[in-house]
Amino acid sequence: RRREGGSKVCAMSFAAREILDPSRVMEAAYDSCSGPATLPGANSLDFLKEEVSTGTTIMAVSFEGGVILGADSRVSTGVYISNRASDKIAPVDERIYCCRSGSAADTQAVSDYVRYFLDQHRMEYGRPPKVATAASFFQRMCYSNKEALMAGMICAGWDSSKGGQVYALPIGGALLERPYATGGSGSTYIYGFCDAHYKPGMTKDQCEQFVTKAIAHAMARDCSSGGVIRLVIIDEAGVERKCISGNKLPFGPL
């Protein structure tokens, strides 16, 4: 579109901004002609070197006989939502899963390595690995590469030795066994909710409601969390997956 008098195009198209500079994809209004003809650095790829903010909400809680993991499904690149229906809960063994937050590439690589290590462990010892073993592998990978990775993870699952277990692995490579754990940008909005509503000894159904409500509140407050809620329920009987669509959330945006 041109201004009256045949001047240059007033603003770069939405598609061009999305490809050349996704971090500024929403800066120009759809019908604005008052902005610059081009965005700064639009013809270079320097933006690929800049740090991009990410966001998510992940959570896991243990109950008598198992664990429940939950996560939202929004993947954000700054203000741009690059995927609105991703799966942030990844299996690393039959009854051991991880929740991923931070850099998607980093956490996918770490979980792939741990899955490989656990496959080797199973073949060598002839039995399923323990949840603590998987968490130790995660901790070793994240701590050894803490200067290069942006990976905040939760490892949770069930084994015959200790039942359901939850291990938090914040960015930097620490390892903490907790009755429940939260992570991601949305977790900061629900610390009070979790403190008020978590009670030791909750049943499976109570834990499922606790995780669902907590993530729904985080999605309502955190602009980097959204989409649907994915749940994974792990116990001795096996693994059950659930998906709660956006129009069935127990708490919506204000």
Summarize the structure.
By secondary structure, the chain is of the alpha+beta class.
How is this structure best described in words?
The chain is an alpha+beta fold and 254 residues long. The chain is built from five helices and twelve strands. The protein has helices at residues 14-20, 104-125, 131-144, 191-197, 204-221, and strands at 58-63, 66-71, 75-77, 80-83, 89-93, 96-102, 151-159, 163-169, 176-177, 180-183, 229-235, 238-244. The strands form three sheets. A five-stranded antiparallel β-sheet has the order 10-1-2-11-12, covered by helices on one side. Strands 5-6-7-8-9 form a five-stranded antiparallel β-sheet, with helices on one face. A hairpin with a 2-residue loop joins strand 3 and strand 4 (80-83). Helix 2 (104-125) crosses helix 3. It is globular, with a radius of gyration of 21 Å. Residues 1-10 and 28-37 have low confidence and may be disordered.
What's the pLDDT, averaged over the residues?
86
**Class based on secondary structure composition and strand pairing:** alpha+beta
* Morphology call: globular
What is the element string, with H for helices and E for strands? HEEEEEEHHEEEEHHEE
In percent terms, what proportion of residues is strand?
25-35%
Helix content: 25-40%
Rg is: 21 Å
Largest sheet: 5 strands, antiparallel
User: Number of helical runs?
Assistant: 5
State the end-to-end distance: 37 Å
> Unreliable stretches, pLDDT < 50, 5 or more residues?
1-10, 28-37
Strands of the biggest beta sheet: in what spatial order? 10-1-2-11-12
Number of separate strands = 12
